[in-house]
Write a structure and sequence with these properties.
Radius of gyration of chain B: 22 Å
Oligomer: heterodimer
CATH superfamily of chain A: P-loop containing nucleotide triphosphate hydrolases
Helix content of chain B: 10-25%
Distance between the termini of chain A: 31 Å
Number of strands of chain A: 12
Number of strands of chain B: 21
CATH class of chain A: Alpha Beta
Distance between the termini of chain B: 51 Å
Shape of chain A: globular
Largest interface: A-B, 31 and 25 residues
Number of helices of chain B: 11
Order of helices and strands of chain A: EEEHEEHEEHHHEHEHEEEHH
Number of helices of chain A: 9
CATH architecture of chain A: 3-Layer(aba) Sandwich
Strand content of chain A: 25-35%
C-alpha cells in the first residue's frame, strides 16, 4: 500500500529525514518510535503533504501512485489520513459542517453520492459511540474549547467517519490519561480492517500496550536504525534508546 | 426648493478664527426656517453650533482622528435636502433593502426626512412609541427634553455638534417600564440625493425604561452613487434591567461619507448589545460610546467591516466603566481588500469606583490584498485595582495551519479559504441575537465575499 524509498526531506535548509525506507501492506499496523528530534513528526507531515518541506531525494508510492506529487486534499481523498499531534482550533467553522464537507468531498472523488444531512447524522451518531464523545462537541466550532483529550478523540472520531485506507497517527497518545488512552486506542483497534493500514508515530511504548503493532521501527537522526516485531518496543522500554543510538553511531 | 435653506458650509479655515465661521449665518437662517419645535430646542441647537464653531472639523493632528483624514468631507458643500420627496421610491421598492423584508415596525427616512407613507408600525400597546423625532418633539416634548443632547452633545465631537445644530428628524423610540417589543424596529435611511455634498443629519433617540426590551435594526442605503454625507447621531437611554440590541448595517454608496455617533447611557443590570456592520461608504466613521452607569451591566460591542477599493472604515469606541461588577466585550473583525483601510480604536476607561470590571476587546483583521492596511489601537485606561481587562489585535492572512488541517481532510484549497473567510465574518454575525436579521446578514455578507475575486485567488 505504501512504499517509502530512500526519502530525504528537510525544512529551512536543514536536513531532517536522511533516507527513510519503509513498506506497509494492507492489514498491517506499524509503529515508528524514536527520541525527540529524530524526525518522526516530519515523516508524518511529509506524508500528509504539508507545505514547507523540501524533498531532495527519494520517493513515496501509495497504491503505486506518486504520493509526493499530490496535494494534501488529493491524498485525503485517496484515503490517507493524518491524526494531528496538535489538532487545530478553527473558530467559526462548525464541526458538523466541516466533517460533512470533508466526507462528501471524499465520497465525490470516489464517485459515490453525497450524504444528505439526515444520513450524515445517522452515521455520525453511530461513530460517536465508538469514541465516547458527547454530541455537543459537534455543535461547536472545530476543536474550539475542546480539552486535550477531546481533541485527540475527535481526531480518531474523524478517522472513523472518513474511513481512510492509510491512517497516520502522530503522537495521538501524548497528553492522554489512561482512560482517554483506552478509549482512543479502543477506537483505533475497532477501525482496523484487512484492507487498511495504520502507522503509529509515538515516543512511548505505552500506546503499544493498547494497539499491538505488527512491526516496530526505530527512527534516529532521520533514518530507521532498527526494525523488528513488538518485542523491540518492549526492549526499548526497558533499555531506552541509548543502546540503539550507540549501535547506530 | 427654498434657496434660503441651501446652506453652504465651509470649514473654519483655522481653529483660531472661529468667529469668521460662515456656519453661524447659515445656522441662523436654518433655525428661522425650521418648523415649530418647542422653545427649549433652540438653545440646544445653538450650543451645538457654538461648540462646532469652537472645535472645527477634526484633523489628523487630533489623536482621535490620527488615521482618518476628513479633508474630503470638509471640502463638500453641506447641502441639506430641504424638501421631502419620495423620489420614486415605492413601498415595494423599499423591500429590496436589507432588513426591509422582515416583519418589523418600520420607519423610513429619505434624505433625512421622515416618510410617513413608506413607514408602517405594527400594532403596539402599553404606551410604547415608535415615531419620528420631529413629531415626538411636539407630542412628547417633556420626555425628550430630559434626554436630547444630554449624552451626545458634541462636547468633544465636532460631527455630533454639527448634527445637534442641524438635525431635521430621526427616530424616536420609547418603551415604558417592562414593555417587551416582540418584533424588531427597523429604521431605514435611504439617500437618493443626486447632488454631490447633499447632507443629512439623522437624529435618533431611544428611551427604554426599566425592564423593557427591544431590538432595533438600522439600515443605511442609497439609490445613487454619489458623494453625499450622512452625519447621524443616536442616543440610547437603557434603563435598569432593560435588554436592548441595536444592529446597524451601513451599506451606503461607495462615494458617500458616513459619520455616526452612538452614545448609550446604560443603567444597572441592563444588557446592551451593539452591532456595527460596515460594507459601504468611501469614508465611514462610527463613534460608539457607552457609559456603564450602574452595577451588573453586560455590554457587547460587536462589529464587522468589509472594505475594498479606496474605502476607509473607522470604528472608534469608548467604553466607560463607572460602576463595579460590569462586563464589556468588544469584538471587531475586518476583511480588507484593494487599497482599503481599516481603523480600530477601542478605549476602555475604568473609573476608580468600577471594581470587579471585566472588560475585553479584540480586533482581528484579514488582509486580502498587499495594499490594504489596518491601524489598530486598543487602549486601556484603568483607575481601579481589582479588575480584569484584556485586549488583543491580530492582523494577517488566513491561518496556514487551519488551511492545512482542512485540506488534510479532503477539502480543496479554494473551499478551505472560503470556509475560513466565511467563518471569520461568521464569528461576528453569529452574535446577532435577532435570528431573522442574523440570517439575512449572513447570506448578504457571504454574497459580497463571493463577488470578490480575491477570495479565490489569494489568501
Amino acid at each position: 500500500m505504501l512504499e517509502i524509498k530512500n526519502l530525504h526531506a528537510g525544512v529551512d535548509g536543514k536536513q531532517i529525514l536522511k533516507g527513510i525506507n519503509l513498506v506497509i501492506q494492507a492489514g498491517e499496523v506499524h509503529a515508528v518510535m524514536g527520541p525527540n528530534g529524530s524526525g518522526k513528526s516530519t515523516l508524518a507531515q511529509v506524508l500528509a503533504g504539508r507545505d514547507g518541506y523540501s524533498i531532495s531525494t527519494g520517493e513515496v508510492l501509495y497504491d503505486g501512485k506518486d504520493l509526493l506529487e499530490m496535494d494534501p486534499e488529493e491524498r485525503a481523498r485517496e484515503g490517507v489520513f493524518l491524526a494531528f499531534q496538535y489538532p487545530v482550533e478553527i473558530p467559526g467553522v462548525n464541526s458538523t459542517y466541516f466533517l460533512k464537507a470533508a466526507l462528501n468531498e471524499i465520497r465525490k472523488s470516489k464517485g459515490l453520492p453525497e450524504l444528505d444531512a439526515i444520513e450524515f447524522l445517522t452515521l455520525v451518531k453511530e461513530k460517536m459511540k465508538l469514541l465516547d464523545l458527547s454530541e455537543d462537541l459537534l455543535k461547536r466550532p472545530v476543536n474550539e474549547g475542546f480539552s486535550g483529550g477531546e481533541k485527540k478523540r475527535n481526531e480518531i472520531f474523524q478517522m472513523a467517519v472518513l474511513e481512510p485506507k492509510l491512517a497516520i497517527l502522530d503522537e495521538t497518545d501524548s497528553g492522554l490519561d489512561i482512560d482517554a488512552l483506552r478509549i482512543v486506542s479502543g477506537g483505533v483497534n475497532k477501525l482496523k480492517r484487512p484492507d487498511n493500514a495504520q502507522l503509529l508515530i509515538t515516543h512511548y511504548q505505552r500506546l503499544l500496550n493498547y494497539i499491538v503493532p505488527d512491526y516496530v521501527h526505530v527512527l534516529y537522526d532521520g533514518r530507521i536504525v532498527r526494525s523488528g516485531s513488538r518485542e523491540l518496543a518492549l526492549e526499548l522500554e526497558e533499555k531506552g534508546y541509548d543502546w540503539l543510538i550507540k549501535e547506530a553511531a | 426648493m427654498d434657496s434660503n435653506l441651501d446652506i453652504m458650509i465651509q470649514a473654519p479655515q483655522t481653529r483660531e478664527t472661529p468667529a469668521a465661521n460662515p456656519y453661524l449665518a447659515s445656522f441662523e437662517r436654518f433655525e428661522q426656517n425650521r418648523l415649530a419645535a418647542p422653545a427649549w430646542v433652540f438653545p440646544i441647537r445653538k450650543a451645538g453650533m457654538a461648540r462646532f464653531a469652537e472645535l472645527g472639523f477634526p484633523t489628523p493632528h487630533d489623536e482621535d482622528w490620527r488615521f482618518t483624514n476628513v479633508a474630503p468631507i470638509v471640502k463638500l458643500p453641506f447641502k441639506p435636502v430641504s424638501e421631502y420627496s419620495r423620489d420614486g421610491i415605492t413601498a415595494q421598492g423599499v423591500q429590496q433593502f436589507t432588513f426591509a423584508g422582515l416583519k418589523a415596525h418600520r420607519l423610513v427616512f429619505i434624505n433625512g426626512h421622515f416618510s410617513e407613507e413608506l413607514s408602517a408600525i405594527l400594532p403596539i400597546s402599553n404606551g410604547a412609541k415608535i415615531t419620528s423625532l420631529a413629531r415626538a418633539l411636539n407630542s412628547d416634548s417633556a420626555r425628550i427634553e430630559k434626554h436630547l443632547a444630554n449624552y451626545a452633545s458634541g462636547e468633544d465631537n465636532a460631527f455630533a455638534a454639527l448634527n445637534t445644530a442641524f438635525f431635521l428628524d430621526g427616530a424616536f423610540l420609547f418603551l415604558p417600564a417592562n414593555t417587551v417589543l416582540e418584533d424588531p424596529v427597523h429604521l431605514l435611511f435611504i439617500s437618493t440625493a443626486s447632488e454631490p455634498g447633499a447632507a443629512s443629519h439623522p437624529r435618533n433617540l431611544f428611551i427604554a425604561e426599566k425592564g423593557s426590551s427591544m431590538t432595533v435594526l438600522e439600515t443605511h442605503v442609497s439609490t445613487v452613487e454619489n458623494s453625499y454625507v450622512t452625519n447621524a447621531v443616536t442616543e440610547l437611554v437603557v434603563g435598569e434591567g432593560a435588554v436592548i440590541e441595536h444592529c446597524k448595517f451601513q451599506d451606503e454608496s461607495s462615494q458617500a461619507f458616513h459619520i455616526a455617533t452612538i452614545h448609550a447611557q446604560i443603567g444597572r443590570n441592563a444588557n446592551f448589545t451593539s452591532h456595527s456592520i460596515v460594507t459601504g461608504a468611501r469614508l465611514a466613521r462610527d463613534n460608539i460610546r457607552t457609559s456603564l452607569a450602574g452595577e451588573g451591566i453586560d455590554c457587547v460591542l460587536n462589529g464587522l467591516y468589509l472594505t475594498k477599493g479606496d474605502q476607509l472604515a473607522d470604528h472608534h469606541m469608548i467604553v466607560e466603566h463607572a460602576k463595579p461588577h460590569c462586563n464589556s466585550h468588544e469584538y471587531f473583525n475586518g476583511i480588507l481588500d484593494g487599497r482599503s483601510r481599516g481603523v480600530f480604536h477601542g478605549r476602555i476607561l475604568v473609573q476608580p469606583e468600577a471594581q470587579k470590571t471585566d472588560a475585553k476587546q479584540t480586533n482581528k483583521n484579514l488582509l486580502l490584498s498587499d495594499s490594504a492596511t489596518i491601524d489598530t489601537k486598543p487602549q486601556l485606561e484603568i483607575y481601579a485595582d481589582d479588575v480584569k481587562c484584556t485586549h488583543g489585535a491580530t492582523i494577517g492572512q488566513l491561518n496556514e495551519e487551519s488551511i492545512f488541517y482542512l485540506r488534510a481532510r479532503g477539502i480543496g484549497l479554494d473551499t478551505a479559504r472560503r470556509m475560513l473567510i466565511h467563518a471569520f465574518a461568521g464569528e461576528i454575525i453569529d452574535r446577532v441575537k435577532c435570528r431573522a436579521a442574523r440570517e439575512e446578514l449572513d447570506q448578504l455578507i457571504w454574497q459580497r465575499l463571493e463577488q470578490n475575486p480575491q477570495i479565490a485567488e489569494k489568501h
